[in-house]
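Lecture 7 notes: from sequence to structure.
We start with the chain below.
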Amino acid sequence: MSSEEHDVLVLGGAGVDTIVYVPQLPLPYADSYMIGSGIETRAGQTGDFVALGLSSLGLRTHHLDMVGDDGPGELVRAFHREHGIALTEVPVAAGTKRAVNLVGPDGRRLSLYDGTRADADGRVPEATVRTLAGASRHVHVSITQPWASALPLLRESGAMVSTDLHDWDGTDAYHEAFAFDADVVFLSTTALSDPEATMRRIAEHGRARAVVATAGAQGARLLAGGVLTHVPAVAPHAPVVDSNGAGDAFAAAFLFGLLAGEPLSLCARYGAVAGAYACTVPATRAQCIGRDDLLRGAARVPAVRPAG
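Predicted structure tokens for the same chain:
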């Protein structure tokens, strides 16, 4: 058993989403639409769902972020109470982060983020970060503000660090600090013209021992030790209804394997299984794959192979 108090500290990414299931994406212009499946606001942005995924797999998880004294903030607090996830909240006058997610019939999503809630008035609580990071085996840092300024503190702590660049285009300078200062880097291929080149650039200019680029139904790519391998996509056990949280689930399951000392190739298989499971769960439900189902699912998945 580790002497640390937490297995994983999740920094940032707490917030509230309003989920709207639309008849198609892109949505053609119209004066109005009747939404038959309802509109629901719930807690659960990237940090919340990574924390939930980790906790569902049995890892001791602590979440730290800026949370407002407002209705959305109470939803975030209730989310953590309900799922038994420790939350340290730092008050922020700008209010809790929020977004609107449009979800099409095929599960694809379009996210609209409220830029006025970007924690512009937030300041990283250095003492708190040092204390929590020092008591954690691993720190997963979200790219939300103001956590870029926490990266030097995390390195000082000696904890292993991961991050998710989401739909980075490979050039935006803001993401580079995260990309080059993390031991494990996740990102999506959505906005990348040359995923392999971007992955190798991250590895060459930073400290990453593993770079993982997810590509939805095309699977994922894993770069480790200079070797690029393909991670096959996993056929979901039920119909795909929503891609919200799939990347967060992938990251959580990968980190589960990493902290268990598994080979990176198996960690990636865990991620593929968890990501596929997440696509079968409506975003209005907070539900992640459990440890037993993850292990059973990974045992049925072909091993990763060299990328062609």
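Points to note: The longest strand covers residues 61-67. The chain has a mean pLDDT of 92.
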